Amino acid sequence: LVRPRSLDDLRGCLDLDPSLRVLGDGANLLVDDPGVAELVISMDAPEAKEAEIDAPSGLVRARAGARLPGLINRCVREGLAGLEVLAGFPASIGGAIMMNAGGAFGEIASVVERVHALDRRGNPVTLERREIPFAYRRSGLGRGALDLIVWEAELRLTPSDRAALDARRREIMEYKKSTQPMSENSAGCCFKNPVLSTPLPSLGPVGEKVGQRVSAGLLIDRAGCKGLAVGGARVSEHHANFITTSRDARARHVIDLMDEVARRVHAAFGVTLEREVVVWERGA
Q: Nearest 5°: phi and psi at 78?
């Protein structure tokens, strides 16, 4: 595990292992029990967590390791709107951009103006917002055609009323506390909300929305998976798209439970669930 403090440090890590893995805040990550073979870099050094806010222009420059919750609070205090919709997300800026973090209230892609990164050969790459293929819970920046390591992002926020922003942030936080098991151990939502290709009358009106996304949690609940357990991992009774863990849980318990949940949902509805939680497995 290496904590780079500069772009030169990051290039040095790429020289050591071009296939290295990047650890953000780990909020949506599950590492399998045997670990991984590659070098892992963590954007946890103070220099990798810097963030500058220019309130008059609404420009925010944040390094990949900057923690999203703290940055949201700073922007709200400065009267800048755009990030408060992500209240309650325990992510780093780099991780949030890589996964296009978002939910019912918005996603980070809406405020990204520019991203500065390195490719796997250590070459600098700067992408404008229009060049980044953001989609639902993905950015297109990770493994694939681009395969970049984000070092810094420029976000463009909108000057707004501080009191109204703070009220909105608190409202979103209260909603999440009431609907999600935020006080328990989990890696966030397990599965992405799928798009229905055929009607599912058994779901009621939401099952008629072919071509639109339906709640993965609803499908998991209707498939009878709430409370289902493997070892120390259990499908949350509070929100079925969360798997919570006890102290004796192993990563493999969670992985096996996710596989079983996906199998039951497919058997019940013919819908294939795609993981939202990123799983690091040795050799994969």
A: -85, -5
Phi, psi of 260 (to 5 degrees): -70, -40
- Rounded distance between C-alpha atoms, residue 184 and residue 235, angstroms: 12
Pairing of strands 278-280, 29-31: parallel
CB 12 within 8 A of CB 63: no
Give φ, ψ of 192 to 5 degrees.
-75, 150
Per-residue confidence (pLDDT) for residue 206, from 0 to 100: 84
How many Å apart are CA 100 and CA 73, to the nearest integer?
19
Dist. CA 61–CA 151, nearest whole Å: 11
Per the structure block, which two tokens stand in for 29? 């990550």
E strands, the chain, where? 21-23, 29-31, 40-42, 51-54, 59-63, 80-81, 102-103, 106-107, 112-118, 124-128, 149-156, 158-159, 229-230, 233-235, 243-245, 278-280
Torsion over CA: 250, 254, 257, 259 (sign): negative
Q: How confident is the model at residue 54 (pLDDT cuts 50, 70, 90)?
A: very high
H helical segments located in the chain: 7-16, 68-77, 93-98, 162-179, 216-222, 251-269
Q: What contacts 137, CB < 8 A, 6 or more positions away?
A: 99, 100, 101, 102, 192, 276
pTM, rounded to two decimals = 0.90
- Could you read off the pLDDT of 100-158 as tens digits, one per residue? 999 889 999 999 999 999 999 999 999 999 999 999 999 999 877 689 999 999 999 99
User: Which ranges of 34-100 does DSSP label H, i.e. alpha helix?
Assistant: 68-77, 93-98
- Residue written as token pair 């325990």: 90
What is the C-alpha separation between 211 and 124, in angstroms, rounded?
A: 38
Catalytic residues: 137, 189, 276
